[in-house]
TrEMBL record, chain A:
Transmembrane segments: none annotated. PANTHER family: ABC TRANSPORTER ATP-BINDING PROTEIN, CONSERVED COMPONENT OF ABC TRANSPORTER FOR NATURAL AMINO ACIDS-RELATED. Keywords: ATP-binding, Nucleotide-binding, Transport. CDD domains: ABC_Mj1267_LivG_branched. The lineage of its organism: Bacteria, Pseudomonadati, Pseudomonadota, Alphaproteobacteria, Hyphomicrobiales. It comes from Ensifer adhaerens (Sinorhizobium morelense). InterPro entries: AAA+_ATPase (IPR003593), ABC_AA/LPS_Transport (IPR051120), ABC_transporter-like_ATP-bd (IPR003439), ABC_transporter-like_CS (IPR017871), BCA_ABC_TP_C (IPR032823), P-loop_NTPase (IPR027417). GO terms for cellular component: plasma membrane. Residues 5-246 form the ABC transporter domain. This is Hemolysin III. Gene3D superfamilies: P-loop containing nucleotide triphosphate hydrolases.
């Protein structure tokens, strides 16, 4: 199948340190890929490069066959590439309902309307209620985000991304900071996504990775060292070495 | 699993948000204050009309600063553009119909908003502030140099508005101008209430908090802010035109840094990000400037200064904003 998302030879260095070192990756519609790797491997940087939040030194990003390397972050979102943030970025003075409504209105090209209020737009409220319900945020929908728990903010972060109805969805550690009791909601929300959506999820929780992904990509020191099935990843010697190495380093540092 | 319909969702939302009860209350308060003012200061309607014109400027500033987080000390450029456009239309082109003059003011204000927005929105924070100061000085200098059009430092005179809708002459006591001003303020207020609660208003509040996040939702902060600048310019243009029509002169002060800075002071005094805050700040400041200064010409500025410091230190949300927060907390405690 023609890839909906493709990255070719992407490179980015910070002060001589190659954080993304010649990464190539492609996804077809319906793919469920987990991107894993030790802390500092360059996973978030990869997402930033792909979405246009950060400029690559070289390489190419393609969406649905179109090269988007020269297109800014907004243009890429409008072409269906949506991300969530590892460190929650929400509007603290606004409510969950407003977040999701804004995403829905923006997606439909209605965010510039100068009259009306989303609270009295039944179609918008329908979607807001459904999506927030799915993530267990219904009861809190009219509270300020600054008043809800961090775990719930993480769920809202995902709700905003889903409300944009992406073609390619990049989730940066969606479950980090979410209480164990609520990770099921994330899984359910992901399971309910349209089958033709391509999802790339960065995640440290391996149980979640194994339940979600049909393909695992391992990034270490800015390079892809494994790209294959979940059943093979734990057996791969390079992967084991990368993780062991990072644990060894971590315990050194500690 | 329980199914919930949209109707349930809508009923769950606070009534205040749904019907915008604040709109009616706000309009009633404006009209009530207008009537009270009329009877309290029957000989000084000119002052009240000026307060209305300035209130329009402060509302306009609130749109870009309070709702969008743009730092500007040059907002009078939009007001002055409206004032000069309405004045020049009358003085040089004999377009004396007040509504036509108003239209000129609105268009000129919006164009000035477009120009200022295009420059100011290129930067953020301190550089943005500096750009805005540079702009207001340029506007001021331009008006000063183009004296054949603007009257330069002597001011633009020869403005002679005809009767409003052909019926109401602009009388010596300023009654027509006052009523005209009150109607304009009420209309603008109602319109702005709609806008700040609209999807666009919500988008702007989000941009103020985190423009990067908004980009990741596919919206362009720059485009939205430009649009808000144009709306803001139109509003300031209404204020400027009202000032030109009611006083029948336009001076360089309407395009000055001082005026820009004072409008920011008024906004902060009342509370940013709220239309009521903008109105409150204007009324309090103008009251001090005109009433208290007449009673105590040497110390009124000291008092304004002290009040401002007290507000910024102890009521950082401004007079209205703080009062509203206290009321809200009381209500929640119940
Ligand atoms: N803007 C930046 N300037 C300099 N160095 C950076 C910058 N952003 C990231 N880095 C460095 O790049 C490396 C990769 O960071 P990145 O956040 O992409 O890792 P990650 O794989 O997402 O890690 P984690 O699992 O902890 O989220 C780190 O060493 C980090 O310090
Ligand atoms: Mg990361």
């Amino acid at each position: 199948m023609q890839p909906v998302f493709e990255v070719r030879n992407l490179k980015r260095a910070f002060g001589g340190l190659a954080v993304t070192n010649d990464v190539s990756l492609s996804m077809a519609p319906g793919d469920r890929v987990a991107l894993i790797g030790p802390n500092g491997a360059g996973k978030t940087t990869f997402v930033n490069l792909v979405t246009g939040n950060l400029a690559p030194d070289s390489g190419e990003v393609r969406l649905g066959g179109e090269t988007v390397t020269g297109i800014d972050a907004i243009g890429r979102v409008r072409r269906g590439l949506v991300r969530s943030f590892q460190v929650t970025r929400l509007f603290l003075d606004m409510t969950p309902a407003e977040h999701v409504a804004l995403a829905v209105l923006q997606r439909d090209g209605r965010s510039g309307r100068l009259f009306g209020n989303f609270l009295s737009m039944p179609d918008v409220m329908d979607e807001v209620g459904q999506l927030l319900g799915k993530l267990g945020l219904r009861e809190l929908m009219h509270r300020k985000v600054s008043e809800i728990a961090y775990g719930q903010q993480r769920l809202l972060e995902i709700a905003v991304a889903l409300a944009l109805k992406p073609k390619v969805l990049l989730l940066d550690e969606p479950a980090a900071g979410v209480p164990q009791s609520d990770t099921g909601r994330i899984e359910q929300a992901l399971a309910d996504l349209p089958a033709d959506l391509a999802v790339l999820m960065i995640e440290h929780d391996m149980d979640l990775v194994f339940r979600f992904a049909k393909r695992v990509v391992v990034l270490a020191a800015g390079a892809i060292i494994f790209d294959g099935s979940p059943s093979d990843v734990t057996q791969d010697p390079r992967v084991r070495e990368a993780y062991l190495g990072s644990y060894a380093n971590a315990s050194h540092a500690a | 699993m329980t199914m919930t319909t949209t109707n349930d969702l809508i009923t769950q939302t606070p009534a205040k948000r749904r019907f915008g009860g604040g709109d009616l209350i706000g309009l009633s308060v404006i009209l009530a204050l207008a009537v009270v003012g009329y009877f309290l200061f029957p000989t000084n309607l000119a002052l009240l009309t000026r307060i209305i014109a300035i209130a329009l400027l402060v509302l306009s500033l609130d749109l870009v600063t309070g709702y969008c987080g743009v730092a500007t000390l040059g907002h009078a450029a939009l007001f002055g553009a409206g004032a000069y456009a309405a004045g020049i239309a009358s003085a040089h082109y004999g377009i004396n119909d007040p509504l036509a003059m108003l239209a000129f003011g609105i268009v000129a204000g919006a164009v000035a908003g477009l120009v200022c927005g295009a420059v100011i929105l290129r930067a953020h924070g301190l550089p943005q502030l500096v750009l805005s100061i540079a702009l207001i000085h340029l506007f001021h200098e331009f008006a000063n140099k183009a004296s054949s059009w603007t009257g330069g430092s002597d001011g633009l005179s020869g403005i002679a508005p005809s009767a409003l809708i052909g019926l109401y002459e602009f009388d010596l006591w300023g009654r027509t101008a006052y009523v005209f001003g009150v109607v304009l303020l009420a209309l603008v207020f109602a319109l702005l209430r709609l806008i700040v609660r609209s999807p666009f208003g919500m988008l702007c509040r989000a941009i103020k908090e985190d423009p990067v996040r908004i980009r990741s939702m596919g919206a362009s902060p720059k485009a939205a802010l430009m649009k808000m600048y144009v709306i803001s310019g139109a509003v300031a243009g209404v204020g400027g035109a009202l000032n030109a029509i009611s006083t029948q002169v336009v001076g360089l002060d309407s395009l000055s840094f001082t005026m820009s800075a004072e409008s920011l002071v008024m906004l902060v005094l009342g509370g940013t990000g709220s239309l009521f805050g903008a109105l409150t700040g204007t009324i309090v400041f103008m009251f001090f400037e005109d009433v208290v200064s007449a009673a105590n010409p040497f110390h009124w500025l000291t008092m304004v200064g002290a009040l401002l410091i007290a507000v910024v230190l102890f009521a950082p949300k401004g007079l209205y904003g703080t009062a509203a927060a206290i009321v809200a907390r009381r209500r929640e405690a119940k």
